[in-house]
Amino acid sequence: MATKHELILRYIKGLSVGEKISVRQVARALSVSEGTAYRAIKEAENRKLVNTIERVGTIRIEKKKRDNIEQLTFAEVLNIVDGQVLGGRDGLYKTLTKFVIGAMQLDDMMRYIDAGNLLIVGNRLKAHETALLAGAAVLVTGGFDASDEAKKIADELELPIISTSYDTFTVATMLNRAIFDQLIEKKILLAEDILTPFSETIVMQSTDHVSDFNRVNKESQHSGYPVIEKSGKLIGIVTSRDVIGRSDDEQIRKVMTRNPITVTEKTSVASAGHSMIWEGLDLIPVITEKGTLAGIISRQDVLKAFQMAQRQPQQGETNDDIVKNQMEIVSDDPYAIQFIVVPQLTNELGSLSYGAMTTLLTDAGNRAIKLHKRGESVPENMTLYFIKHVQLGSVVRVEPRILHMSRRLVKVDFDILSEGELIAKAMVMYQLFER
């Protein structure tokens, strides 16, 4: 039987996009306490089912698909520019395709405006109306107002007119940064992006027997299975190692591993993979916030995700991307790399920063491991000693040296030199992925 919390979430999912809700309304509609309604609405907000906007309220929104994440809704624009809605409030949750800065004559401006655009412009009243009639929303900068006629058109067409006190250049910079951040977020793979969903996952009940495991194992060739209750809550995991030497009539609950290591749907693939190699796991269950099974991730899923990510075109650049772009291979040593200390790699004193150095070292070590033995690796710990400050503009050479390599562990020693002089030393320990 569904809990009150789950019933409220279903109720919210059933609302039309753009419909306003409140704690009192939900409590009255479902005969629950306002405290229960408030907690459920907060969870709905975390799940991107609703959005709360100051001076507007909480409104049902459509959860954006991951492949469309670089597009902003007009409601998000409203939040970014700290604006207020002058008209067309019902169109806040439409998605903008691009924004256009109105810094030209009206006729020329309209050549660049299409339906779904956002026109960023000051107090040019005629431009407001013309853009709305062309199917574009309007963002009025400088804190100016719009005409009553424009507001009427906005309400009729459900296209927002938003006013902000910021100037046009600042607004464009803020929106560009927001889109850029979402492009970076798009690159970060989460467990929910690669998991095998619950509907396709082979699971076992605690009341099943070892004979059931052997039968399923023979049919599927998988090495382990999540163990769940009838409610779907995860209570353990059972693998081939657990059933070795056990009699066929022994129940799964007596041989399974209780309280297994799990991840949530929002855990990054990198973090999940790190847990798997550190703990020596072949699969890891993915659970919901309620502890029910959402699906599983296998070691092969993680490896495929990493390989896929490497083949993806560049989206938004992170600081790590900027650092790695400075790396060049040294011709006289295939394991060594060199780089120039550019402003992005420095601290506030103009010297090579600790963060940039650790990124360069771990990436140089990963490259050396791949050259020595094909496979993926992740750094576990690092010891770094700066002997001298590395100044802006310096050419730095990193020479990794593999000291020890086992099936799961690699120790790499680094010499960091500038103009032939030793400036730093480091030791990094890596964990290996076994295919």
From TrEMBL:
<keyword id="KW-0129">CBS domain</keyword>
<feature type="domain" description="CBS">
    <location>
        <begin position="256"/>
        <end position="314"/>
    </location>
</feature>
<dbReference type="InterPro" id="IPR029069">
    <property type="entry name" value="HotDog_dom_sf"/>
</dbReference>
<dbReference type="InterPro" id="IPR028979">
    <property type="entry name" value="Ser_kin/Pase_Hpr-like_N_sf"/>
</dbReference>
<dbReference type="InterPro" id="IPR000644">
    <property type="entry name" value="CBS_dom"/>
</dbReference>
<protein>
    <submittedName>
        <fullName>DRTGG domain-containing protein</fullName>
    </submittedName>
</protein>
<dbReference type="InterPro" id="IPR036388">
    <property type="entry name" value="WH-like_DNA-bd_sf"/>
</dbReference>
<dbReference type="InterPro" id="IPR051257">
    <property type="entry name" value="Diverse_CBS-Domain"/>
</dbReference>
<dbReference type="Pfam" id="PF03061">
    <property type="entry name" value="4HBT"/>
</dbReference>
<dbReference type="InterPro" id="IPR006683">
    <property type="entry name" value="Thioestr_dom"/>
</dbReference>
<dbReference type="InterPro" id="IPR046342">
    <property type="entry name" value="CBS_dom_sf"/>
</dbReference>
<dbReference type="InterPro" id="IPR010766">
    <property type="entry name" value="DRTGG"/>
</dbReference>
<dbReference type="Pfam" id="PF07085">
    <property type="entry name" value="DRTGG"/>
</dbReference>
<feature type="domain" description="CBS">
    <location>
        <begin position="195"/>
        <end position="255"/>
    </location>
</feature>
<dbReference type="Pfam" id="PF00571">
    <property type="entry name" value="CBS"/>
</dbReference>
